[in-house]
Amino acid sequence: MRPVHPARPAVFGLPCAASVAELPEQVDLAVLLVADPLPLIGELAGAKARFAVAFASGFAETGRAGAEAQERLAEAVRRSGVRLPGARHPALAPAAHRQRGRPGDP
Q1: Which of 20-29, 34-43, 45-54, 82-91 bottoms out in mean pLDDT, i.e. has the lowest?
Q2: Is 2 domain-assigned?
């Protein structure tokens, strides 16, 4: 795990790179813990990151402005080649919602 933060030298005792481009190896999975992941998509694409997961809010669930922000993010992701699953992706659904059948069913 390699944290990236533009202003902190370390996070939880781990040294930070100031940008994705400064990481010493290719990124397999980026976990984005930011309010707006859009600015990072181009940086991830430039570093040839293959996958990202964003923990963010303020998109279509908040209304028109959020839906427009969501569409801008989706378009940037489509252009970038980075795979970013959406909030309704089955892999991100709680386990109870993924369950097929009822408990005790064969």
Answers
A1: 82-91
A2: no
Of residues 68, 1, 8, 63, the one with CA closest to residue 36:
68
104 located within any domain: no
Q: Please say whether the dihedral angle defined by the alpha carbons of residues 80, 56, 23 and 50, taken in this order, is positive or negative.
A: negative
Pairing of strands 14-15, 10-11: antiparallel
> Which domain range does residue 33 map to?
26-88
Other beta carbons within 10 Å of 104: 5
Judge if pTM exceeds 0.70: yes
In a domain, 13, yes or no: no
Q: Count how many domains the chain has.
A: 1
Kind and range of the H or E run holding 42: helix 38-46
